[in-house]
Write a structure and sequence with these properties.
homodimer, Dehydroquinate synthase-like, alpha domain, two-stranded antiparallel sheet, 15 helices, 8 strands
Chain lengths: ~400, ~400
């Protein structure tokens, strides 16, 4: 196990009707003028925004609002939010939505007290100060409600970049599984794949002797594997939704990744797919991850055997462990198909002839690599795309 | 799953040589005059206290010190610590040791800014303000390094009581597994049982649909079951020590207990054993827990079957699940024996003729019960003690 630090100071409020406590927690954390930040109209139409406003009114908290966050949130709206917060003397940002909304809120929060261009943070500048951020989560997927990171896309050149630091972790996050019950099956499944991918990027590691985090990774994967088919079958299943929602937080606040080298190549390879075809991140990951596994499993057969046996319940083939490793990847792919996810270019709507462009856009050139489990060069990435055809 | 809140704001610093960062973190959290609080002389003799002092000197932090914390920490030393802190204008307490030292430090920290008797907190008064507490952990067991609770024994009447609240969670905790390598096998095993017991008190629940926390409980139990025999065999095994040390934190910061009813009867039943015979808490738990399981398994055979199959790898007896449930308890007991723990009164040095006294001291009377998985009356507790003979 490697040396590490771990810090997750977010106050989590979980369960039915908890969105009505938003005002209480904003007051507790010293917010007096709030920006309510959200995406499309569904949170307005469902009455969620009204319930939240009522909870703020009850505490005498003033607010303004800014909707319109898109999936893959854009810098344009972040600039607009920063300007609005300054003009209205906002001191607290409440994100109501999924990962895109929360990431946009984090970026605005970091930008308001900063004299320069907030994009500096996405080019490596350290965030020293931010407004406080709280969240009311509506989708189990990105884990931004508990994470120290954010991803914003700059319109100029469609540059998708990440930034972070413990300082941008939300001060509180409200997770009410009821709010996810209206999500269509496809979006639910995309979220589930995102959650699984956050775990798998940590699970496939070269760090030895990490039984505690191995077992915890497996625990959360097993939960997803049990619960997701239940909500695909019955979207109103509160209990299954609840297990998935908490799993999404645990998968990405880094509790599962402490003390181990992490990979993150598949996320990079997928980003080019969702950028080019505007497909959901989770759907892209469902296509890329099995292909990545097929390409790299030989690097550490034992680890893939562990994945197959412990996560997928495969019978160990003692005479030929490689067969067991391959069986685990096959079962993973079957699971993805069973929850309605694409598992190849064709199902995703991606084109073989775009592969050179996808590889080029990753920008690894001749000397750079991506990933740490296996360090991938451009030629490796190309082979992985081809395995996903 | 039940509604819940979860808050674990402690900054964890984990790994080799990390005790040398104590000064850095105290400065970061605003400490300028520190009480270094510890137990016996071993942390002095080993040079640990000197290394910590050097790290404080390096940051220009002043300190005073107070050793002498006993297992089952006493109120007398807490009063002494409060007085010393006030006299020396201490603003930060650094606990160097295991759960007893950390609990004593938490009690001093709560007592210093309080006008009344600190014991009020152990009689239900809410803690409104405390000095900040940091820890350098030397034993994997109690989980106090990440928990919101403390247990202190008042000499008058030997009254052992708990108190807590999120406010007393340490601001930082330094966990260096190297510091646990000198622990004798018996103490290591006692610590491991304490860790397992913290999980089992949460695992046996009447709350349905808690797959995520069920799986995480099982993950940490499986880690202990793998790693503890390795350190009993080879006390210098850093990697196994590291996995156990982090497991001890995870087991008791309540991540594994969110959204579920918890039991805690076995802890209560054990407390009377350690109070009467001055035996280690972990050793007492090794005697009580299998007896409690044997007494209550009929209440929910399925849950005990799950424990047997998932944690102990028992083959499911589909024709007779009760046999599988019993097999799980048997394996647990065999494991405890294998790591050198007592599993009955005789091995612990407890006496059958004291059972009426033990039951009486629990003070349940005629109308009170303990536990929530099964609500135990005095007559049930007596039967559990008899099952442990």
């Amino acid at each position: 196990m490697k040396n590490f630090t771990f810090y997750s100071p977010t106050f989590f409020v979980f369960g039915k009707k908890t969105e009505n406590e938003a005002g209480h927690y904003i007051k507790k954390y010293g917010g007096s003028k709030v920006l309510i930040h959200y995406g499309g109209g569904s949170v307005v139409r469902s009455g969620l925004i009204d319930r939240i406003k009522a909870s703020l009114d009850k505490e005498g908290i003033k607010y303004t609002e800014l909707g319109g966050v898109q999936p893959n949130p854009r810098s344009g709206l972040v600039y607009k939010g920063i300007e609005l917060c300054r003009k209205e003397n906002v001191d607290f940002i409440l994100a109501v939505g999924g990962g895109s909304v929360i990431d946009s809120a984090k970026a605005i929060a970091a930008g308001v007290p900063y004299d320069g261009d907030f994009w500096d943070f996405f080019e490596g500048k350290r965030i020293e100060k931010t407004l406080k951020v709280g969240t009311v989560l509506t989708i189990a997927a990105a884990g931004s409600e508990g994470s120290d990171s954010m991803v914003i896309t700059r319109e100029e050149g469609m540059l998708k970049r990440g930034a972070g630091g413990d300082i941008i972790r939300p001060v509180f996050s409200i997770l009410n599984p009821e709010l996810t019950q209206t999500l269509p099956a496809y979006q639910t499944a995309c979220g589930a794949v995102d959650i699984m991918a956050h775990i798998l990027e940590r699970y496939f590691t070269n760090t030895r002797e990490v039984e505690i985090t191995d077992r915890m990774c497996e625990a959360v994967l097993l939960t997803i594997i049990k619960e997701v088919p239940r909500v695909i079958e019955d979207p109103d299943n509160y209990e299954a939704r609840a297990n998935i929602m908490w799993a999404g937080m645990v998968a990405h606040n880094n509790l599962l990744g402490v003390g181990r080298e992490q990979d993150w190549a598949s996320h990079g390879i997928e980003h080019e797919l969702s950028a080019l075809y505007d497909v959901a991140h989770g759907a892209g990951l469902a296509v890329i991850f099995p292909a990545w596994m097929t390409y790299v499993y030989n690097h550490d057969i034992n680890r893939f055997v562990q994945f197959a046996v412990r996560v997928w319940g495969c019978q160990m083939n003692f005479a030929n462990p490689e067969e067991t490793a391959k069986e685990g990847i096959k079962r993973f792919k079957q699971f993805l198909t069973s929850i309605g996810m694409p598992v190849n270019f064709k199902e995703l709507g991606a084109r073989e002839e775009d592969i050179p462009l996808l590889v080029e856009k990753m920008g690894l050139g001749e000397n750079y690599t991506r990933g740490s489990f296996v360090r991938l060069k451009s030629s490796d990435v190309e082979k992985i795309y081809r395995l996903a055809l």
